[in-house]
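3.2 Worked example (two chains)
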Amino acid sequence: MFVLLGVALVVVGFALRLNPMLVVVVSGVATALLGGLTPKEILDSIGNGFAGSRSVTIWVVTLPVIGLLDRYGLQQRAGRLIGRLRVLTTGRLLAGYLLVRQGTAALGLTGIFGHPHTVRPLIGPMAIGAAQQRYGDLTDPEIEKIKAFSASSDNVGLFFGEDIFIAVGSVLLITGYVNTSYGLQLDPLELARWAVPTAICAYVIHAGRLLWLDRWLVRQSTAVKAVAR
């Protein structure tokens, strides 16, 4: 029971808005100590996990490329390009990205898109550019809100799309735990099948929120013009 205190540390740390990396590391070490592991065993587990999951270091390869793209104005170019497409609003753009992100994740292609190499240098500036084309200069709260919705489109698409792919880690973890703990024979295909309606509902709900963002931007622009008069 005391091992679950690590979960409480995560909840408290996030509620206090502490550094997420620090919160996760401290809660992980605390959980391991409460579970009876020695400091040496904890370091061995961390080292083995890091060596066995080298995909976590892919950002080291992509970081220089993203830096060069930013240096030579990729964000500005993307914003100008999307600004010329008058039909494409901020909400429609993000809803389209959400659909693509969810579809590729459902096929197991979780590494194609993402925050560092797609949302920040491309999708975010394109969404802001679409809003600026329609409403002119944006305020800081409006820009931050668009950035937040751009990031959430990636999160929702990945989270609810990857469970449809039967070989993803979360599905294998669930089936392995249930089969081992309860003596059942849970088929990954069954989980993937039930994940489909969940993914559809997630898309409909979040796409609706993205289209609501367009209406919010219209109201904000109208309010600013009224004050200016």
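3.2.1 Second chain
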Amino acid sequence: MPRSYSFIVVVALLLVAAGARDARAQHLPDLVTTDVLRVCSDPGNMPFSQRKGDGFENRIAQIVADELKVKLRYYWLTQGPGFVRNTLGTGLCDLIIGTSGGEVVQATNPYYRSAYAVVTRKGEIDGLKGLDDPRLKDKKIGSIAGTPPFARLTELGLAGERLTPYPPYLFGDDRKHQTVAASVIADLAEKKIDVAVLWGPAAGWLARQSGVPMEVVPLLNEPGRPALTFRVSMGVRHGEDDWKRKINAVQRKRKDDIEKVLREYDVPLLVEEENKLLEPSADAKTP
């Protein structure tokens, strides 16, 4: 038998065996705690989550737990490198409320779509719609280094002395603010910068909490690359397909309740396929 043919036969047998294992794995029960909803979360990452439970992801987690008719339990870890691997990846919890998927985490169906946003002090740059507005040329802009809008600002020639890069993470007990985004908005309120470009779900709530009237404009008119709009899902472990389907079913059933929470926190919500804002459903309108 020629050596190459032997190799092909061996590979074929290995693929058949692997397929059989994968088929069996699909029928194995998910290794998920069934009497409690164990959620991985950051104890200080408003408006997303907080140990007190007053972030919008905390409230959405409670909606999921209520629908599953189980108690809610958290495993807390500060967001940063290794967050997913050291929480969901080690089996300490079974669900992440906000993710886009990845090597360790499997994304459920997305439950909202949002965009990066430009934030200014109210009345200073009226009618701003995009980062190519010529009025930004002489403004001091703050954005988090490594994020998609930072790349877009560089592409438009707005980098250099006018662009203040903020670090992706804040660590240490001496930090003045809970998150980097909160630091950017505080600097905008104190007129250290003129414009902030941040992830919309953080920007809307932080701007409202700043004590200074601000305009938050989702970036809906930018080119497709780099992408400035993203779908957000919940996250489970790879291979836990029954658990994923169960969470998808909860999302569908409680869609209006989840949307209402997001709107209460000023999260810019986009329609599924177009870069335009989503009209509130009748049941999701806030009072």
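3.3 Remarks
Confidence is low (pLDDT under 50) at residues 1-29.
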